[in-house]
Write a structure and sequence with these properties.
single chain; mainly alpha
Length: 86
């Protein structure tokens, strides 16, 4: 699978999520309430990354409608949500 329709910019979204997660993991400054907002942002960025990646694969011709929907649903089921942030 190649993707590339969006110039692989979805990896910038993933990188932001990872950098925010690092800030959470190394937090010594912010309250739990603020960190919970960071966690929400990480969850939303990871969700955004997944959607952009899957749509990229569809638009690049790597997926047909059925495989797009199937793979998206499969990946959504794998996501481990931090439920304390919602």
């Amino acid at each position: 699978m190649s993707g590339g329709h969006f110039g692989y910019k979805e990896f910038n979204i993933k990188q932001l999520a990872e950098e925010m997660q690092d800030a959470i993991d190394n937090n010594t400054e912010y309250s739990d309430e603020v960190i919970n907002k960071f966690k929400t942002a990480v969850n939303l960025l990871n969700l955004s990354y997944l959607y952009v990646k899957m749509i990229d694969m569809l638009l690049s011709g790597d997926y047909c409608d059925d495989s797009f929907l199937s793979n998206l649903n499969e990946e959504l089921n794998k996501i481990k949500w931090n439920t304390e942030t919602y």
